[in-house]
Amino acid sequence: MAQHQSGAGSHGHDDSHGSVKSYVIGFILSIVLTIIPLFVVMNHMLSRTSTMVVILAAAVLQFLVQLFFFMHIRESNGPRWNVMTLIFGVVILLTVVGGSVWIMEYNMVAH
């Protein structure tokens, strides 16, 4: 019976994870962060490099919006293992992508 009561207590905590307000804010931010790069690309507003920077910045911001507004990454109790795992994954991703770009640039110069 104690397990059932503790489960009900944790279920009550789950109700506070997302409110309609937070979902609406996340949804609007996601739409804005999709429209901005689209608008920049369709109207040829910036140079190629600046356009890529805008696209990448919007992608990173949209990733953060998804994590915080929809996946509730900051609202867990106890150890922050999922945050540490996420940071480790991002470090590995940046290492692989950065290393690949560096190798491709080095090969272009060598030939």
From TrEMBL:
N-terminal signal peptide: none
GO CC, alphabetical: cytochrome o ubiquinol oxidase complex; plasma membrane
Pfam families from the UniProt entry: COX4_pro (PF03626)
Keywords, ordered alphabetically: Cell membrane, Electron transport, Membrane, Oxidoreductase, Transmembrane, Transmembrane helix, Transport
Principal place of residence: membrane
Record membrane topology: Multi-pass membrane protein
InterPro entries for this protein: Cyt_c_oxidase_su4_prok, Cyt_o_ubiqinol_oxidase_su4, Cytochrome_c_oxidase_bac_sub4
Biological process (GO), any one: electron transport coupled proton transport
UniProt keyword annotation of Membrane present: yes
Transmembrane feature ranges: 20-41, 53-71, 83-104
Record carries keyword Plastid: no
Family: Belongs to the cytochrome c oxidase bacterial subunit 4 family.
Full protein name: Heme transporter CcmD
Organism: Paenibacillus polymyxa (strain SC2) (Bacillus polymyxa)
Encoding gene, per UniProt annotation: cyoD
